[in-house]
Every structure is written in C-alpha cells, then in structure tokens.
TrEMBL record:
Protein name per the record: Protoheme IX farnesyltransferase
EC number: 2.5.1.141
Gene it is expressed from: ctaB
PROSITE patterns: UBIA
Pfam families assigned: UbiA
GO BP terms, alphabetized: heme O biosynthetic process
Length: 312
C-alpha cells in the first residue's frame, strides 16, 4: 500500500506528527487490519486483552519497518514528488533520529509480542521487519524490477503473525491469507507505478514501468490479477471461509479483472491524455478489493459464532 506523508513543522523542527509520519500510518492501518483478521479467524480463542496488546505491538513493528525504510530511502525520497515531504527528506527529522527511532521500536515490539503472546509470533514479527528493511528496501528495491514481487511478501506476513499469536504456528489457512496479499501486491503497486513512472525514473528505482515500459506492465497487472482469482476462491472454500466469502470474492474478482482488462487494452496516448484516470481507479479499487476480502472473513467468523457461517 502506498502512503503520502504530511508535514507538521518547519524544516529542522521535528514535531510529534513527524515521528508518527515515520510510522507510515496508512500502511500501518493495513498491517493492523489484516493481522487482526488473522488473529480473530484463527480456531484458538485469544483473551481480548492479550489480543489488543498483540495487535498494538504488531502495529509498532510495522511502524518500525516504515521508519527504517524512510531512513534508508531518504536520498531517493527527496527526488520523488510523492515522498519529498516525508519528515526525513524534508529535513524535519534527521536520518540518525529516524534510524534510532526505528531500531528502538523494532526491538520493543518484537520482545513484547513474544512476552505477550508467544515466542514464535515475536520471532515472526522480527523476521517480517528484517525482510521489509533488508531484503526489500536495501537489497531488492534499487536492483531489480522484481522488487515489489518478492518484497511484497513483507506486507503479506501480518495475517500470518496474527494467526501465530492465536495458535503459535502456521497453517494452510494462514498461508492462503498470505497468498492473497502476496499476489495482490504487484497489480496494486504497478497500477500506481503506471501514473507515477516519472518519479521512479527520476529516483533511479527500477520499477517495472521504468525498465520494461507501461505496455508490458499492463500485461503483468492482468497476469497477476488472473492469479489472484484462484487464490481468493481457495480462501473462500477454506475452513475460515464460507458462502459469504465466496460471494464477495466472485463480485470483487470480476470487478478487478474488468479493470485489469481495461488497462491491458489501453492506448498509451489515450491514457496520458486523460491523466491516467483508469489506472488511478484501479489503484484505488485494489485497496477496496483487499479490504473487502478480509472484511468478509471477519463477517464469516461472526456468522460462524452464531451457527450460520462456514461450509458445515
């Protein structure tokens, strides 16, 4: 998920909102929501207080990853319109402050999650932060157009962490939730990259739109959208799914596929002339698509508790 940071102080004057912005709150909201769903739909009940504390530390872990990402990417963030007003490139928070803030939150969140829930969940959160910061941000992002494909795994781990909080392990259901986000990430980010290509080009980030062009990117968006469909249907037919999940999946998948087909057929001249309106619509809809699937899992769980949900 993309984020747009906001300013709250003059250059060189860090305010509370600047440190909150380091946490990438829009991205954190996705982390929190999917982790919460993973925890709630797990077959093992969790005490409400433990669940709330666990979600808090998962959120802080996601924020730590965001702060460390902003620390490392400050040089290229200065070159992109979408990110130039973030606290570090804007000069309101120093790179050292961002690094220290991120490392402190990472250590606190992982240790406290291990103590509040279980060691496996704490280690899983630590691995997720490592994957996002080291594997994606440091290694992949500036080296390969497959950056978002492989690196997208970091954003797909939160529901698995939520599941691990409840169960202490991994299951087919948590892997299906991972697959849903993992396959969703490329078309989500590539639809953004279609209308933000100049930013990535100026910063030297080898996004697919820069290295292979927009037409090829449109084809890959369609390919990943097609791959999303069986993943969403498999989750709907799993033990955490049910008829409601299936109905939501069919509707949202059909709309996503229609949008991806429209992008695939788009003429570049027409796209530029209308300001990439269809690309922006698909980007926004992709957020609704993901929210809709996980909201349906929550609703299915609620129905199951009343004796109406699931396939049984």
């Amino acid at each position: 998920m993309s984020d747009t940071s906001f300013s709250s102080a003059a250059p060189g004057e860090a305010g509370l909102r600047d440190f909150l912005a380091l946490l990438k709150p829009r991205v954190m909201s996705l982390v929190v929501f999917t982790a919460f769903v993973g925890l709630v739909v797990a077959p093992v009940p969790v005490h409400p207080f433990v669940a709330a504390v666990a979600i808090l530390f998962i959120a802080l872990g996601g924020g730590a990853a965001g702060a460390l990402n902003m620390w490392y990417d400050a040089d290229i963030d200065r070159l992109m319109r979408r990110t130039e007003r973030r606290p570090v490139p804007a000069g309101r928070v120093s790179e050292g402050e961002a690094l220290g803030f991120g490392l402190a939150l990472a250590g606190i969140s992982c240790v406290m999650l291990a103590l509040a829930a279980n060691v496996f969940a704490g280690l899983f959160l630590a691995f997720t932060i490592f994957f996002y910061v080291v594997v994606y941000t440091v290694w992949l992002k500036r080296r390969t157009p497959q950056n978002i494909v492989i690196g997208g795994a970091a954003g797909a781990f939160p529901p698995m962490i939520g599941w691990a909080v409840a169960t202490g392990g991994i299951s087919a259901e948590s892997l299906l939730m991972f697959a849903l986000i993992f396959l969703w990430t490329p078309p989500h980010f590539w639809s953004l990259a279609l209308f933000m290509r100049d930013d990535y080009s100026r910063a030297g980030v080898p996004m697919l739109t820069v290295t292979h062009g927009r037409p090829a990117t449109r084809g890959w968006i369609l390919a990943y959208t097609l791959a999303l469909i069986p993943a969403s249907l498999a989750l709907a037919f799993s033990t955490v799914g049910g008829p409601l999940c299936l109905a939501v999946a069919v509707i949202l998948d059909a709309l996503f596929l229609r949008g991806a087909l429209r992008l695939w057929r788009r003429d570049e001249a027409v796209a530029e002339a209308d300001g990439f309106a269809a690309e922006k619509r698909l980007f926004r809809f992709s957020l609704l698509w993901l929210f809709g699937h996980f909201a349906a899992l929550l609703a299915e769980r609620a129905l199951h508790l009343t004796g109406w949900g699931g396939w049984a």
